[in-house]
């Protein structure tokens, strides 16, 4: 089974929007075990859409057409599919009723333009859109099939999950559910991770195991299973997840949609602990990333961003000779705990670069952890990358150190 | 002249990487007045690359092939172009010399694999790569032409600007330079901006004027001129820029690569002023965005992120009854100036949402500006959008208020 993607929109060609939909669909297809050999973008142009559709259908079994389903005259996906099918468009009464009801709930009259969204090529079927006014289209063409979905990512993704993917899997003869579990890790390299679980990767065909590098979000080990039902698929994943976790231990910081921030905030909340920060090299990034996560307000006291040295000395009372040092990180963490009246104080100081500082090369970072009444612990490291990457890596590394510390106290 | 884009890489189809190169090239082509009607992505597969190249060349005049120029066996862009040309690959001595010299400067031996990067289809020409090991290729095919460029965005963009675009313009018969000037604005809506300069947009054909919405980076008015030389193009832009600036006044905060952060830091530095922040709703985002900008260290003293109310009261001495209020913003700004011993103190408090707070709806934000010995000024506003967007908009709005204040003092 081969399924290609055709994204529609002149704005894509002009570079006003980057086509993220095709990549998203590509990832979904790969996970479903369906080949995708070509993605294309063409403008809102009927003849070029028709040419692209014909060419893709000649080489593949199915095409996802993304976009061009809006109400304005430049939206011609409906017309293009009808032309490829060699049929006329039919205005569907049930769609008129559905779209006008949608406008009524929003307290508005349906503009005449929106009637165009009720046109479906004869012999094709509308696909319900549960969040927008544009119905999708499922159009059989001989033994092959074209699915038209909206270009708005949220609408497209919902229609994909609820309607298109299940239909595609049925056609592919896969009467099956596909379920994934992502184990998010921090603290080792991709090759290190691969080496640790190579024997499991080699041994498996269902579930499969894949690695995804997510940059500052860490490395993800994704376990994917296919089975007749969701429950069966979960049942296949569960023992594999246990086995992989037994090998990776606390390198795994979270699963699926969890982030390092959400995991650390949860650990603190469960223990009833508040957090205070003293940031130098990260410049407020640790606080900012935590605040971007829901549920910060009952955990985070605040952060003192001491960027200039005199602020570290006067406000935070740092008297260590070198500002980038273990001693300074220790004092920063202690000051954060004390001044912000927090249960846990974290301090971070380092050199973002490009120049060295205090005789320390760019990437050098020291982290201080002041937890409860315990003495402050300090860890130093050398992080790779340019200025902004050093700040991002320092932020995640600091939160990961706190995570490991909290786990060790459990 | 029509120029399409073919991006190479199985990782694009699998959704592991989003193809931003094609959008970038599309934007460049649009700006140069060259039509681009189709973008495609295919995997590292010789026969599909050859099919795509032939199809694109049949309909257009030129194709940019992006990626597949690396040293490993799955990089087959060279082979695909040779097959479309109907010629063999030739190993070029001057490229061997050049690539091995590159490895020598890096203190390494050239791996045997890299010899593949010295292969060029007979009749084609290498394009120098000033920052990587992969030379590009310029391949004439009848009256048409294929340019192969690296997939690494930085290498691609440099090669594009230095080599490909000028060559393409020569072929298009445009013995001309295209120059743009972006005026970045903050403080009005896209329709408001369009209305203000509608008469200039309508009156112009060279230079042209376009609007680009950049979200939290503001709205951009881009003036683009074509002329035989760069100097001539600049001469066309200059009077138009003056006219647009006369209309927009200090809505324009910067040009081209300038950001709100870099502009505000420059204004402070020129006046010899230091900056201290007290952040509530932004949670460290103001500091973090400033620190991400080069040249912060002689201006930014630091930021006190007072997220919980008790920190505002104990550390910053805020005694205003309501934490989201004009009075609290005034006290935050004053405390930032005093505690961080800064010339300028900024304070920001508000409701990021989704819930209301202090009887104020989500999006309500108060800004305090404490400049020198002057009394603190306070501005209140209601910002649109969800939680994270409120924080981002609050950050830029605060910096813009400081910019206007500093300009008024000049």
Task: Describe this protein with a few key phrases.
homodimer, 410 residues, alpha/beta, Molybdenum Cofactor Biosythetic Enzyme, Chain A, Alpha-Beta Plaits, Maf protein, 3 domains, 6-stranded mixed sheet, 5-stranded mixed sheet, 14 helices, 17 strands, elongated
Write a structural description.
- By secondary structure, chain A is of the alpha/beta class.
- Chain A has 3 domains: 169 residues, MoaB/Mog-like domain (Molybdenum Cofactor Biosythetic Enzyme, Chain A, 3-Layer(aba) Sandwich); 79 residues, Alpha-Beta Plaits; 150 residues, CinA-like (Maf protein), CATH 3.90.950.20.
- Chain A has 14 helices and 17 strands.
- In chain A, α2 packs parallel to α6.
- Helices cover 40% and strands 24% of the residues of chain A.
- The two termini of chain A are 50 Å apart.
- Chain A has a 6-stranded mixed β-sheet, sandwiched between helices.
- The interface between A and B is large, with 68 and 68 residues.
CATH H level, superfamily name of the largest domain in chain A: MoaB/Mog-like domain
Identify the most extensive interface between protein chains. Answer: A-B, 68 and 68 residues
Using only CA atoms, what is the Rg of chain A?
27 Å
Average of per-residue pLDDT values of chain A: 92
CATH domain topology of the largest domain in chain A: Molybdenum Cofactor Biosythetic Enzyme, Chain A
How many DSSP E strands of chain A?
A: 17
Strand order of the largest sheet of chain A: 2-1-3-8-7-6
What is the 3D shape of chain A?
elongated
CATH architectural category of the largest domain in chain A: 3-Layer(aba) Sandwich
- In helices, the fraction of residues of chain A equals 40-55%
Structure annotation, total helices of chain A? 14
Low-confidence stretches of chain A: none
What kind of oligomer do you see? homodimer
The class by helix and strand makeup of chain A works out as alpha/beta
Largest sheet of chain A: 6 strands, mixed
Q: How far is it from the N-terminal to the C-terminal residue of chain A, by CA?
A: 50 Å
CATH class of the largest domain in chain A: Alpha Beta
